[in-house]
Amino acid sequence: METLSRERAHGGEQVVCRHRSESTGTEMVFSVFVPPHAPGARLPVVWFLSGLSCTHANVTEKGEYRRVCAELGLVFVAPDTSPRGEGVPDDPDGAYDFGLGAGFYLDAVRAPFVEHYRMRRYVLDELPALIAAEFPVDLSRQGITGHSMGGHGALTLGLSNPNRFRAVSAFAPIVAPSQVPWGQKAFAGYLGSDRALWRRHDAVALIEDGARVPALLVDQGDADPFLTEQLRPELLREACAQAGIALTLRLQPGYTHSYYFVSSFMDDHLRWHAQRLG
Ligand SMILES: N[C@@H](CCC(=O)N[C@@H](CS)C(=O)NCC(=O)O)C(=O)O
């Protein structure tokens, strides 16, 4: 692992690293904020999964999480959203919603994406092991959140691993990718036509099929241009109501899909995670 930058911030350190990933077969870059802490302490960790077209840098530069992470003693990790580099296939038309910057936090099964697009394995297995080896984290206290496609990642990985993630939240998530154009394009490209496989990567379908977490926090801007076509939080509300999952879904007036929205509610999400991570 190579440290690309290390900056003191809020009494802790904001670090950006690059490493060779076995999961993706590429170099991957991620950022980690380590808050001030006592020597030898192991801290709870919140994973932030980013949205379409992002890298680790969007939330690192615009997410405004450091002050509250420093206050609460949370490590904050931001992975990239896809493999990148020579030989990594992209959308044939270079579109932002598939291929580079759009890994959808799943392991592809279709050629040519199967070779590198293994973001689920990367985020669930490889990166936690690396982070635990290199930073003072306590992997028995993990929370997961994310924005848009990353909200989809947080919800699906959280619902599929309720014993690992003690807190799950999302900002403007894609809640039912099988039912919306972004998800349908990505799932057809990465997973093919097997709808049963799609359901394992779809938060609403996972809940319909029995996945459970005690509680979810979701914020959504009501001026988000993707709200009615791509995000459709009402589908999550219905699924959670049926399943008895305590969903706090807050429609935030006037907010769009941007990091102005994400950063405005970041404090609330971090406090919500800290409460559940102890
Ligand atoms: N207009 C955007 C569409 C994609 C988009 O809105 N991405 C969201 C996540 S789904 C984002 O966070 N973009 C980067 C940013 O705002 O920093 C683009 O082409 O980049």
Using brief descriptors, characterize the structure shown.
AB_hydrolase_fold; Rossmann fold; hydrolase; serine esterase; binds glutathione; globular; S-formylglutathione hydrolase activity; S-formylglutathione hydrolase; 24% strand
Task: Quickly describe the structure.
GO terms for molecular function: S-formylglutathione hydrolase activity. By secondary structure, the protein is of the alpha/beta class.
Structure description:
The chain has about 280 residues and is of the alpha/beta class. It has one domain: 3-Layer(aba) Sandwich (Rossmann fold), CATH 3.40.50. The protein has ten helices and nine strands. It has a nine-stranded mixed β-sheet with strand order 1-2-3-5-4-6-7-8-9, with helices on both faces. Strand 6, helix 4 and strand 7 form a beta-alpha-beta unit. It starts with a strand and ends with a helix. The mean pLDDT is about 100. The structure holds glutathione. The site of glutathione has 12 residues, from loops.
Beta-strand residue fraction: 15-25%
The small-molecule ligands in this entry are:
glutathione
Spans with pLDDT under 50 lasting ≥5 residues?
none
Principal-axes geometry comes out as: globular
Q: Give the CATH level 1 class.
A: Alpha Beta
* Architecture per CATH nomenclature, i.e. the level-2 architecture: 3-Layer(aba) Sandwich
CATH superfamily: Alpha/Beta hydrolase fold, catalytic domain
N-to-C CA distance: 30 Å
Order of helices and strands: EEEEHHEHEHEHHHEHHEH
Number of domains: 1
The level of helicity is 25-40%
- Strands of the biggest beta sheet: in what spatial order? 1-2-3-5-4-6-7-8-9
Q: The CATH topology is what?
A: Rossmann fold
Radius of gyration: 17 Å
Give the biggest sheet: 9 strands, mixed
The count of strands amounts to: 9
Number of helix segments? 10
**Mean pLDDT score:** 98
Structural class: alpha/beta
